[in-house]
Here is the input.
Amino acid sequence: MALLADEDIQARLVQRSGWSHDNGALVKKFELEDFMAVVNLVNAVAPAAEAADHHPDMFINYRRITFTLSTHSEGGVTEKDFALLDEIEQLARV
Here is the structure.
């Protein structure tokens, strides 16, 4: 899978609120109502990530979770990252 150009990444992020491109990865911090809501989001994202064989970094800090998406085998951002980003956004709205 090919790496996406920085210009393409930035153009796509304009349509996706709160996400940034930082050090070759897509990053967003979500703040939810409580710790269990964060755990529930992790539990919802995990099967989707496993099915896609694409696993995000997830950092939990009480009511906040930061997702970092990068295709490690390619050394940066690919289509796989945007597909998982969209899945995370959908799951976070539930």
Remarks:
- The mean pLDDT is 96.
- The first helix runs from residue 6 to 13.
- The CA atoms of residues 39 and 60 lie 8 Å apart.
- Helices lie at 6-13, 35-52, 79-93.
